[in-house]
């Protein structure tokens, strides 16, 4: 039986986080009343002229550099002509054969296999308006989004020597996650898939294994989450294979992901091949980038996720999995980094941050950068454990309390008298009490049922309201029960 | 280069123009005469002329990223042939 292999290309659109639109001064924002952020330029009124937003070009160049792209020394805008009601000018200002960034890559490691996914181009364009389909045969058009700076990032298939392509749904998802993480670190976009500030349109084809020529591809739209990307790509790969195995052929078309039914369905296919009639935008002059400007932008690129993960592993001796969790967002990475720097035991800090801290962050829906906790909280809590002032279980209670109130751990311990009891006399009394109260279990233990030790420890801890030093409890119990 | 009637039909579709049969015939002739005129440009020697998309020696015209007031929504839609709830109203088109 013929074995098939997939070829997956990713086209990702990202709205840049600027104050104003790409070619005019209208405000960039999500939501709001329709047509309240529009002017003659983004409405395409006759006689209006676009002027390039410098910040957008800087953010895009910074991104292209972070994605290991070469920056064009000279770049121009083109008009992409097509008729659609969300496009008031009947053309979109975009880039064609002279994109700002080209030939880069994104590193992924799906399923433990390290790959450098080749990027063909990164270019700048403007977003279109929004169509709100109504009952009946009408649509409402809101041009608030028209002209918002939009960056397009496209992968390269086949990749050049030394680089790789995406070959599974899992890799497609990871590529997108890595890309999103890089954009978050760069602070160039809020990359919210559910709000459409990051949109992904994979194109997919399969071919007999080893064949050089690509099969016919389909494009998937309406993927609004990482999960949808994974499931949509997976579904489409299986569907195409089924079509080919049944002796059919794949039709080149755009298919829409239906999240509720978990299938892709054909959208009305184009009767006429799109013909965009690109030509250089006469209203905008060329951009020339000198090395100093590029170097300056390069120097503003922060430590990126992969570098961060590797540094956490090397400097703090963390396992890969922990380092990845901690580097998930720049806010969490910074929080951990600051805690680890003030502590003698970065590994223990990592356990608390990936454990209790993230649990409480998720349970309360608190953004990491809005937490009341400071590195001082975490480090002094670890000190209290180290010095034996509190035991690990009590520390969890203290953690939650300081997370909620922002009080320092030492104050909480004092206030609630949670100090660990290490006084052998007091613990001995509790041990004696427990042994006296559970003679049946004592007999069973002495008859060889040693796992009962856990039961006794639990009882003694309860007797001490959790404050007894577990080491001392264990030692005392063992000697008394042996008795 | 000569354009055929099919070329005219395709250009008309891209421009969303509906042409009658006799208009298509007429325009095919017109456009080809226009192209013949442009053909004269081919006679010029451009050997030492660099290709250019912009004729004025101006580069890097940027604006600072500062938000400015937009038009009032009433004014935005004031030219719309059909409007509703501060939106332009168009026939429903669903295209890929």
Structural summary, described in words:
The complex is a heterodimer of chains A (483) and B (96). Chain A is of the alpha+beta class and 483 residues long. Helices cover 39% and strands 19% of the residues of chain A. Chain A has three domains: 11-189 and 197-202 and 273-297, no CATH class; 305-412, no CATH class; 424-481, Arc Repressor Mutant, subunit A (Orthogonal Bundle). In chain A, α3 (226-245) links the parallel β13 (218-221) and β14 (253-258). Chain A is elongated. The N and C termini of chain A lie far apart (72 Å). Chain B is α+β, with helices and mostly antiparallel strands and 96 residues long. Chain B has helices at residues 5-14, 21-39, 73-76; strands at residues 62-63, 83-84, 87-91. Chain B has a two-stranded antiparallel ribbon with strand order 2-3. The longest helix of chain B has 19 residues, at 21-39. Chains A and B meet through β2, α1, β9, β10 and β17 of A and α1, β1 and β3 of B.
- Percent helix range of chain B: 25-40%
The helix content of chain A is: 25-40%
Number of helices of chain B: 3
Query: What is the count of distinct domains of chain A?
Result: 3
Describe the main β-sheet of chain A briefly: 9 strands, mixed
Q: Work out the strand percent of chain A.
A: 15-25%
Please describe the biggest sheet of chain B, giving its number of strands, its sense, and whether it closes into a barrel: 2 strands, antiparallel
Amount of beta strand of chain B: 5-15%
How many individual β-strands of chain B? 3
List segments of chain B where confidence is low: pLDDT < 50 over at least 5 consecutive residues. Answer: none
State the separation between the terminal residues of chain A, measured CA to CA: 72 Å
CATH architecture verdict of the domain at 5-42 in chain B: Orthogonal Bundle
What structural category arises from helix and sheet content of chain A? alpha+beta
Work out the radius of gyration of chain B. Answer: 22 Å
Oligomeric composition of the shown chains? heterodimer
The shape of chain A, in one word, is: elongated
Strand adjacency order, main sheet of chain B: 2-3
Q: Find the CATH topology of the domain at 5-42 in chain B.
A: Histone, subunit A
Strand order of the largest sheet of chain A: 3-7-8-11-1-12-13-14-15
């Amino acid at each position: 039986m013929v074995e098939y292999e997939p070829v997956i290309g990713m086209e990702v659109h990202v709205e840049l986080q600027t104050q104003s639109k790409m070619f005019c001064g209208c405000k960039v924002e999500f939501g709001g009343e329709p047509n309240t952020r529009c002017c003659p330029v983004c409405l395409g009124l006759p006689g209006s002229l676009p002027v390039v937003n410098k910040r957008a070009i800087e953010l895009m160049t910074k991104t292209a550099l972070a994605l290991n792209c070469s920056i064009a020394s000279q770049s121009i805008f083109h008009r992409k002509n097509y008729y659609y009601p969300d496009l008031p000018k009947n053309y979109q200002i975009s880039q064609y054969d002279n994109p700002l960034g080209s030939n880069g890559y994104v590193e992924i490691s799906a399923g433990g296999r390290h790959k450098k996914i080749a990027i063909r181009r990164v270019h700048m364009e403007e977003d279109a308006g929004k169509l709100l389909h109504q009952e009946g045969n009408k649509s409402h058009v809101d041009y608030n989004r028209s002209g918002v700076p939009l960056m397009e990032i496209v992968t390269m298939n086949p990749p050049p020597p030394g680089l790789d392509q995406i070959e599974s749904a899992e890799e497609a998802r990871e590529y997108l996650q890595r890309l999103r993480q890089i954009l978050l670190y760069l602070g160039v976009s809020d990359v919210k898939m559910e709000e459409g500030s990051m949109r992904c349109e994979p194109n997919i084809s399969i071919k007999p294994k080893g064949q050089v020529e690509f099969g016919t591809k389909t494009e998937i739209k309406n993927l609004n989450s990482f999960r949808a990307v994974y499931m949509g790509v997976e579904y489409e790969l299986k569907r195409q294979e089924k079509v080919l195995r049944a002796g059919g052929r794949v039709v080149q078309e755009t298919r829409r992901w239906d999240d509720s039914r978990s299938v892709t369905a054909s959208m009305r296919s184009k009767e006429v091949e799109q013909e965009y009639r690109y030509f250089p935008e006469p209203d905008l002059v060329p951009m020339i980038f000198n090395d100093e400007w590029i170097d300056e932008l390069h120097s503003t690129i922060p430590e990126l996720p992969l570098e961060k993960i590797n540094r956490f592993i090397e400097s703090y001796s963390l396992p890969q999995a922990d380092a990845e969790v901690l580097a998930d967002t720049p806010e969490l990475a910074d929080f951990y980094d600051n805690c680890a720097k003030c502590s003698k035991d970065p590994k223990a800090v990592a356990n608390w941050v990936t454990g209790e801290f993230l649990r409480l962050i998720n349970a309360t829906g608190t953004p990491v950068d809005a937490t009341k906790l400071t590195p001082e909280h975490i480090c002094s809590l670890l000190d209290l454990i180290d010095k034996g002032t509190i035991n690990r279980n009590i520390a969890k209670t203290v953690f939650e309390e300081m997370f909620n109130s922002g009080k320092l751990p030492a104050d909480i311990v004092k206030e609630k008298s949670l100090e660990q009891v290490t006084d052998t006399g007091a613990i001995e009394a509790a041990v004696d009490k427990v042994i006296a109260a559970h003679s049946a279990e004592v007999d069973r233990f002495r008859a060889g049922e040693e796992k009962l030790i856990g039961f006794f420890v639990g009882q003694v801890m309860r007797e001490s309201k959790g404050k007894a030093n577990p080491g001392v409890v264990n030692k005392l119990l063992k000697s008394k029960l042996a008795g | 280069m000569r354009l055929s009637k099919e070329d005219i039909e395709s250009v008309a579709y891209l421009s969303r123009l509906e042409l009658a049969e006799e208009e298509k015939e007429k325009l095919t002739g017109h456009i080809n005469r226009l192209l013949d005129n442009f053909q004269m440009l081919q006679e010029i020697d451009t050997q030492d002329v660099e290709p250019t998309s912009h004729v004025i020696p101006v580069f890097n015209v940027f604006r600072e990223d500062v938000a400015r007031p937009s038009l009032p929504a009433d004014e935005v839609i004031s030219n719309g042939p059909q409007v509703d709830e501060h939106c332009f109203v168009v026939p429903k088109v669903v295209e890929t």
